[in-house]
Amino acid sequence: RDQIYVADVVKANLLASQCNTSGIFNVGTGTAVSFNEIVTALNDVLGCCLQPYYIDNPYNSYQEHTLADLTAAKAVLGFEPEYPLDRGVKEYFQQIDIHEIAKVTSR
């Protein structure tokens, strides 16, 4: 899946609000991120080593690999994402109370 940080979504919306061309634009990073990469980013920020728990996929038609095509957003809006996964996770956790997170991860 393509994971995007909220600050990049806000940036894309602000660019769209100033654009004279209407349209539908994909907003993402253009990079697929695996579940394991998300777990690693969370572990790095939290300073822990939580192990993922895997279950069988209950859907027959699930798309394993998806990412946003940013061609139109770049060409029309001038949108370029600024936050790769690790930076977005770090910035997000700077905004919330780390002590509350510690309570959850110690369960």
Description:
The protein is mostly helical. It has five helices and no strands. It has helices at 6-17, 35-46, 71-77, 85-95, 98-105. Helix 2 (35-46) packs across helix 4. The longest helix is centred in the N-terminal third of the chain and has 12 residues, at 6-17. The protein starts with 5 loop residues before the first helix and ends with a helix.
Determine the N-to-C terminus distance. 28 Å
Average residue pLDDT: 90
Biggest beta-sheet profile: none
Residue windows where pLDDT falls under 50 for at least 5 positions: none
Tell me the number of strands. Answer: 0
Strand and helix order: HHHHH
Residues in helix, %? 40-55%
What would the principal axes of the Cα set say about the shape?
flat
Q: Proportion of β residues?
A: under 5%
Structural class by helix and strand composition: mainly alpha
Number of helices: 5
Radius of gyration: 17 Å
